[in-house]
Amino acid sequence: MIRFGRTLWLTLMLAIGLLCVPPAHAQIGTIGNVGRALAVCVSRVQPGDTVRRMFARPERFDCTTSQSAMGPGDYWVLSEPLPPPADANAAIRVRQVSLWQRQTGLYALAADGRIAGQIADEFGIGRRLKLGAVIDHRFVPHGAPFTRLLWRIDGAGNLRGIVLGPKIATDADSIRSDILLAALYSAFAGLALGLLVYNLALWRVLNHDFQLAYCGLLGCLLLYALSSSGALAWLLPDMSNNRRILFSYMMLCGGMATALTFCAFFFEARVLDGAPIRAMRGFIVIFCVLVVLFAALGAQWIAPLDRIFSVTMLLSPVAVLAALVRAWRRHSMYLSLFALSWAAPLVMLVARSLYNLGLVPWNFWVDNSTILAMSAETLLASVAIAYRMRMLSHERDEAVRQEAISRELADTDPLTGLLNRRAFLARAVPSDGPRTLMLFDIDHFKQVNDTIGHDGGDEVLRLFARTLRYHAPPGVLVARMGGEEFALLGEEAQMPDVDVILSSVRAVRLPFDLRMTTSIGICHGPLSDDNDWKRLYRRADKALFEAKAAGRDRAGRALAA
After folding, report:
1. How far is it, in rounded angstroms, from Cα 521 to Cα 429?
2. Domain residue limits at 552
């Protein structure tokens, strides 16, 4: 509870800080859309309208109604009177946010009555885009300064507005904006690309599902940054601006689907079972369907699809929050890092969704919140993934250790610690070249058990095993074949001296002045398959029987086959 409370507190502090970004960065906000903001008024296009007539009739324009409340259609948009320029001969740039529209015309009225105009359809709009997906129009005065601006917008989808964020700027302002935004986008692209290659390489090695989902997320974000920055219009000049906007929608939907997939796979197995995982899968399916719908029907159904997209984006954090609560209740080790790394995207996601639904005003940084939030997320998530990989590595190492222990227990006689019969045969057959087999049987072992008990008999077996292990050089297999029978197997040159072993066994002290001796059967021969083993064992066993018959405490050797 304490750990989750600390995590929640830090997450809330980060969220509050992010929500304060727009007012605290009012000056920085000019990076994306530089210059002096212009107030505008709107009027619907009517039959007989001309550019000069609309300049002359400002009373026709509505300056109070929200643009997005006017719905789709064709519009005139008139600016407030322009401020007197510092240099009457300097060019001016009129900048505005790129929106869904079929055609835009911008006209500048000079003080001498001259009107300069520029018209672009949705293909021409794409060629006018600057970084930040800002449409940039440049006008050069010829003696008389410009006093007012008039837009003619045809086929406005009016999803966010008709003319959004209009500003008047200088050439220097425009260049400065491009440089600063180029640094922002390239920094994000470099960060995301580096993490993509890194996590893809790790996935190839470790094959964890959450790594592949994160690679998919980074890929979608890179393509979204390429589109939302306007750079895609430079790479594909024949792509219409509306198609570029559709591509951005598709990449956002793909990014949301892969982000939720990453969340589903990031936590330990079965942590999110039940409602959280079902909710995530439901949102993943919706976002995947939206990708297809935007690609196939976006041009005709952009308004309803945008509404569905915005509502789904606004509701999807509920599934993530449900996952966090479930992870807390089940004491997930990865909760803290996940909550901190995804705080910024979740807050910005809600802010962006509220903006899409018209519940908060437009702001350049809210409009570009995805890049900002995911820049923070990629840095923090890289730490979270590194921690996740560290924990997985520990889990893997522990699993390997336990497997090794289990394998050793399965191959080892629990009383003596020597190989058991099964493990001995698995390692002995087949062998390259001939091998020497020594079979040992403790003499009068029943008498030992009767005298000092079974616990004492077990200790005798352990002492005998210790003696054999001590005399067996590396490369010689030592095993307890069952009961009081033991075996050594190796190349003839490696085998220990039989008389030394017999002497060492006699020297072992037992209670009640008991003496321990052993009989040995020795044979030498090939050991390439199971049949060779059976022959070798029969001959060694026969030699052991002969040693016992000859008085015990000695070795018997089988004749060459």
Report:
1. 19
2. 421-557
165 plus 184 within the same structural domain? no
Instruction: Give the integer Cα–Cα distance in Å for 221 and 345.
Output: 12
Contact 165, 362 (CB under 8 A): yes
Q: What is the pLDDT of residues 39-82, one digit of tens each?
A: 999 999 999 999 999 999 999 999 999 998 899 999 999 999 99
pLDDT tens digits for 382-396? 666 666 666 666 766
- Whole-model pTM: value is 0.66
CA-closest candidate to residue 337, choices 387, 264, 379, 374? 387
CATH of the domain at 464: 3.30.70.270
Which tokens in the block code for residue 216? Answer: 């998919």
The answer to whether residue 8 is domain-embedded is no
| The pLDDT of residue 514 is above 50 | yes
Same domain? For 188 and 258 the reply is yes
Which is more confident, 170 or 334?
170
What single-letter amino acid sits at 492? E
- For 303-315, write each residue's pLDDT tens digit: 999 999 999 988 9
The CATH number given to whatever domain includes residue 63 is 2.60.40.2380
Q: Alpha helix locations (H) across 167-240? A: 171-206, 209-228, 231-235
- Cβ atoms of residues 536 and 523 within 8 Å: yes
> What token pair was written down for 426?
């698995």
We report the CATH number of the domain holding residue 392 as 1.20.1070
Per the DSSP assignment, residues forming a β-bridge with 515 are 509
What is the identity of the amino acid at 325?
Answer: V
